[in-house]
Amino acid sequence: MAEFPIPVSVLTGFLGAGKTTLLNRLLKDPALTDTAVIINEFGDVAIDHLLVEQSSDGVIQLSDGCLCCTVRGELVDTLADLVDRLQTGKIARLKRVVIETTGLADPAPVLQSIMGHPALVQAFRLDGVIAMVDAVNGEATLDAHVEAVKQVAVADRIVVAKTDLVTEAQALERLRARLRKINPGAPLLDVSAAGVAGLLDCGLYDPKTKTADVRKWLGAEAEHAAHHHAGHGHDHDQRVRSFTLVHDRPVPYASIEMFLDLLRSAHGEKLLRMKGIIELAESPERPLVVHGVQKLLHPPARLPAWPDEVRGTRLVLITLDMPEDYVRRLFAAFTNQPQVDTADRAAMENNPLAIAGR
């Protein structure tokens, strides 16, 4: 049987980054027993499917195309079918699902498929995103393809592969420094040290202890209330920003709801990922957890108690071409900290367009 919600891990990375090699190694670990693997294919021959050393019962191969477009509906159907097979006894146990995306995929629609379906959100929870980067071609790929930058930006874990093929140590360190700038909150791992324990179970909830690890989930940058620009000299990198919104007092639910609605309606397509924990004025002892991808907001969850001593609101935003100043002024208005010549919360509630920047 399965204990719902079942954790789902998304393995992404550009073409040739080594996703299938890593997946083959992970599948040999006893910790991944009773794991369903969904492999996306691109092209006429399902080469990746042939390389994955797992029985056909455990591997679900999607049809031609990429998860971000033509087979998105099929992904939903596949996940729903897994639940049906569990409930009817066709599958005895299911502890985890791993989705390997095609190298050309923007991972955001994959995350939306998991988070946005009203039935699936009851059966599955997003555990995390693992992005793989090829150490040999990584810099050139990031330069040429904004999809590769987005894959790194939304990741909870970043794995660098083929480091043994890099002859120049300085080149490898430049790549690692660049990845840290794009996504300062995600641990950076070498593929040789990347195991099940370090890659999976990186979500908010610890499935073993049933407790929450907010710091691990939000990322290191939330602890310092920092904001990061992704780099200098790289066109795609400069478009990505990671920043944290912090407020140290309780916030009315209506205010945070309107803030999130306005943010998603104004710049939802530019919001690659958002994670946060909020202290509500109505019930400050039970924090609200929010998680969003672009315009889609996962149904908010309430924790039974605060997982650490830090109260208030911490929202981590990973964005692409989003005006940070607009977001900060909008957040300040709804937390009753309006800046000079900026509307306060009451004015915003009466006129949502009071702050320019849409």
Automatic annotation (TrEMBL):
Residue span(s) of domain CobW C-terminal? 240-335
Q: Name one GO cellular component term.
A: cytoplasm
Alphabetized, the UniProt keywords read: Chaperone, Hydrolase, Nucleotide-binding
Against CDD domains, the record matches this protein to: CobW-like (cd03112)
Q: Name one GO molecular function term.
A: nucleotide binding
This enzyme catalyses: GTP + H2O = GDP + phosphate + H(+)
Family (UniProt) = Belongs to the SIMIBI class G3E GTPase family. ZNG1 subfamily.
Q: What does this protein do?
A: Zinc chaperone that directly transfers zinc cofactor to target proteins, thereby activating them. Zinc is transferred from the CXCC motif in the GTPase domain to the zinc binding site in target proteins in a process requiring GTP hydrolysis.
Q: This chain belongs to which protein, by name?
A: CobW C-terminal domain-containing protein
In which organism is this protein found?
Mesorhizobium alhagi CCNWXJ12-2
